[in-house]
Amino acid sequence: TYPAGKPYKCGECGYCCTTAGKLKYHTSKHTGERPYKCSECNYTCMKSGNLKSHIRIHTGEKPFKCIECNYSCIEFGTLKVHMRTHSGEKPYKCTVCNYSGTTAGSVKYHMRIHTGEKPFKCNECNYSCTTSVNLKIHSRTHSGEKPYKCTECNYSSRVSCHLKIHMRKHTGEKPYKCSECSYSCTSYGGFKIHMRKHTGEKPYKCSECDYSCIQSGHLKKHMRRTHLRTAI
Asked: What pTM value is reported for the model?
C-alpha cells in the first residue's frame, strides 16, 4: 500500500514519494551511485543541482548576494545562514544552557562543551579540540605555516582574524570605542582589558602574594621580577 498521493515506493526501505525523480535520487543512497561528475576535479554527487553549485567553486561565480552588505556566495542556503548575522536570528538552541546558534552545526559543536567530547586530536602533541577547524589552526603551531599575509608589510598569521586586526594598524580603523573615555582600539581583546581600568576588575591573581592585575602579561612580569628574584 502507498500513502495517499505518494505512488512511488522504495523496495529497500519502504520510503514513498510523489515523483519518479525523487525515488531515483533516494535509491541512489542505497546503491551509492553518484552519476554527476565534475569535469575539473574528482567531485561526484547524486543531484545535478549539487554539481551546479560545486562548479561555481571553479568559476568563481557567486550569484547569491546579501542586500545588507557586500557578501555573496554560491548557494542560497549559505546566504540564508549569512542573513541571520543581520537579523540576529538564532533558531538552533542548546538543551542544556541558553546558547543559541545560526546553524545546527554550531549547536553540535557547542554541545561538546557540555559533554567534554574533543574528537579532533593532534598527532604531534596531546592537544585535542571540538572542531576540525581548530585542529587545523593548531597544527600550524607545529608546521610554522602562516598562510594569512599582510599586503602592506611582512606580517603573517596562522588565523585570518589576526590578520584582520593587524590590518587596522595600516588603515587606522579602531572600531572598539570606550563609553567612559576617549579610548578606542583595534581589537575586542584590547578593549576588554581597557574596560577593567574603569570597572576595577583584576582577574589575574598571584599565587604567592596578594598581587592582582588586569591582564596575564602583567602577572607574568610580576612573577619574574618579584618571586623569581626572591627565589634566587
From this structure: 0.56
